[in-house]
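subagent[fold] <- orchestrator: predict structure for attached chain, return tokens only, no commentary.
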Amino acid sequence: MRRIPSRSAAILGVSPLCAPVLLSSVLLSSVLLSAVLLSAVLLCAGCAGAAGVRPLAAGSSPDRPSPVSSAPVSATASPSVSQPAAPLAGKIVGIDPGHNGGNFTHPAYLARQIWNGREDEDCDTTGTETAGGYTEARFNFNVATYLAADLVAEGARVVLTRHSDTGVGPCVNTRSEIINRAHADVAIDIHADGGPVTGRGFTVLEPVADGPNDAVIRSSIRFGAYVRAAMLRYTSMPESDYYGHDGLIFRNDLAGLNLTTVPKVLVECGNMRNPTDARLLTRPSFQREIARAFAAAITKFLTGRTTTG
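subagent[fold] -> orchestrator:
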């Protein structure tokens, strides 16, 4: 068969024998040129990125720019910024909402005698109530619930002596044991009083040394002062005008205070028998104010930091 000169060889004006070699050289040169051009494109894209030009985000289009961060652009990677630690992180707080909603139904259980550190006393009582039937147990639990939420938000671990308002007990000595075993950094017993109808105001009850609580008397008194100040600052409830002096009183006959091994006070938040106090104590908004006051006092005691606002 006669070999026909290729058209490429004819066009290039070379010998047909050299055409394949020349053609291969041309193709190789084209490949190398393409690679050089691609490298240049990629290099330019990298330069553009370094200059602050960002590629479109997924789902974006040229006429709908990607959202731009408000953070300033830095030539170097920004170090990670750690969030400030919660003020009560690592702290344990005990909360004892006095009495229980079902205590009315078990008088025999309540009458059981327990040792309160000095003498025998009843396991628990029903607590008081307003003239309209709003129970102290319900008030205590509501405030405790609000307070627990505030403290958890600040990083604390909260230990409650009861978790509902439909049960019975536990006995007052058991309540102290629950908080003591948790090694709480501080604790508060929440109550409301059933005083004379004409009497108004709150009282902070502080412990008297009797053995188990000897090591925490001074710290409990300091905490009590913070609670008193916070009640006056954050609520409209005045100091009691019938019980204690300047909103404070020492008690040596209560298991919750006698048996404590952690700093603790008991607060009578107001007089449920007084119509003015009762209107305040039964309002959820006022219960939240009391919880806020307690949280502020606890934070001050544990950190030295005064809550603003």
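orchestrator: received. Logging for downstream: The chain has nine helices and eight strands. The domain at 92-303 is CATH 3.40.630.40 (Aminopeptidase).
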